[in-house]
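Hello forum,

I keep getting stuck at the same step: I have a sequence, I want structure tokens, and every attempt I make locally crashes halfway through. Rather than fight my setup again tonight, could one of you with a working pipeline run this one for me? It's a single chain of 557 residues.
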Amino acid sequence: MGSFPSPSSQALTDEELHRRVASLIVVRASGHAGDRQRRYPRWELNNADLQRLLQSGVGGVILLGGTCVELQQRCLQLRDWAGRPLLLCADVEEGVGQRFEGASWLVPPMALSSLYASDPAQAETLAEHYGACTGRQARQCGLNWVLAPVVDVNNNPDNPVINVRAWGNDPTTVSKLTLAFQRGLTREGVLGCAKHFPGHGDTAVDSHLQLPVLPHDRERLERIELLPFRTSIAAGIDSVMTAHLEIPALDPTRPATLSKPVLTGLLRQELGFEGLIVTDALVMEAIRKHYSPGEAARLAFEAGADLILMPEDADAAIKAICSGLRSGRIPWQQLDASLERRQKALQRINTAAPEQQRSEQASHQLLAQESPKERALSTELVELTCQTNGGRIQAAAAGKGINLIRVDGVLPCPQLHATAPALLLPERAGFSPLIIHPMAVSIWRDDQPSSPLALERLGDGPVLVQLFLRGNPFRGGRDKQEPWGDALAQLQRAGRLAGVVIYGSPYSWEALRARLEAGIPAAYSPGQMPDAQHSALSRLITQPETTGTGPGQGFTD
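Reply #2:
Ran it on my machine without issues. Output:
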């Protein structure tokens, strides 16, 4: 399993020490094979550097992008380059299909919290199936570590980075549902990760961009933020990810990721966590703005982190930790303890894996990524969490209606490809698409705040408004600057609002639904994937009977 012998750490050669420290570094790579296919080359290593680092001892890779087949082949390639077991992980909080095409893309975890309020037993059962689906598909693709569940309590509706990724807005709901998810994940023989310790839910600042401050006292932290972590730890969660937060009640000088009182004192000693502590990505601006790559890695390891995730410079991170050990600043036994925890985690993957996993690994055979049972789960979650009110949308004269779609991703994006139901179903009812992006051409006017839409840019005809809105990292709350409430009111005054569909944030849905007149057709789905679009729009739009294969007739369920 790639374990290291255990002579006195102080007797290690520089090369031996480098390899041991490197095994605790987790770097970022694309799931695509080619360097030119990388989506985020700023963070995703090119193949030459990736191969060099793996051969020099780097022990983990976090992946993003590509299809399931590409991911499986990529994982085999990475293992081959390393020549030893690796920790291979991904942020698949909403199912493997959230990041890798071809697998199940499930509704965001927040969707299950509303189900829990009405039927706790059903919600917990679905959460366990959710975890099992994610674990099985991750395993088949070659991953052995799922960076989920998010156990943050999202009790701040303005949270731009956690939001619908959380399993609820109260600690009891989050604890129950994440525990169920964890059971499903564990059953499939992959590692889980509770994040972001000690709790990132009550922030209105995105730690990808700046360092948030959590001002609460210890009593409040115990009552809200820490409860789900205690539950996860008691249930044997494999790893815990840190949060880039400043919490004066716990450490007035350093953010949690770099804080010994938080990681060693609170998490390790008080809460009794014995698994792997992994940092959140050190390239995030909350850390990067204030610390050099080497300093951030050394401080995190010194504070008690076992694994260093996405250092801005892996070589500098390894060098800084080695120097800290040689200088005596970091105790040698801390390195030994981290290596032992990593080794035990790899052993748990092997021993917990069912026989099917071992045969899959031996044959390198990719089985069907979404079983009929998992497909049924995906559909059930979408249908159970979709909401509607008002009537049904009246068909417009052919091509005279406007299908105004606001989407975050630059096209084509996973939620809005050429055959997406959000495009095709309204088109069949006479609504031609007009797609806008927050950073692209504006449809807003600045001179009349109460009538913000430049209607002359839309053209004539009834308007169906579809808004893809959810908490999105790196946007810094800019979504809230878009005056959609006033825009809906303006369309209603003009008698032109045919209907509204909100995909994503329940907070946006509640706020915008309150601005609608009685009878305006409206729907909400927490999911943004094509399945969610089809479910919501099918409840609002009566499709005309059509034959042939003309425009808009190519969508199949």
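The first helix runs from residue 14 to 22. If your local run keeps crashing, start a new thread with the error log.
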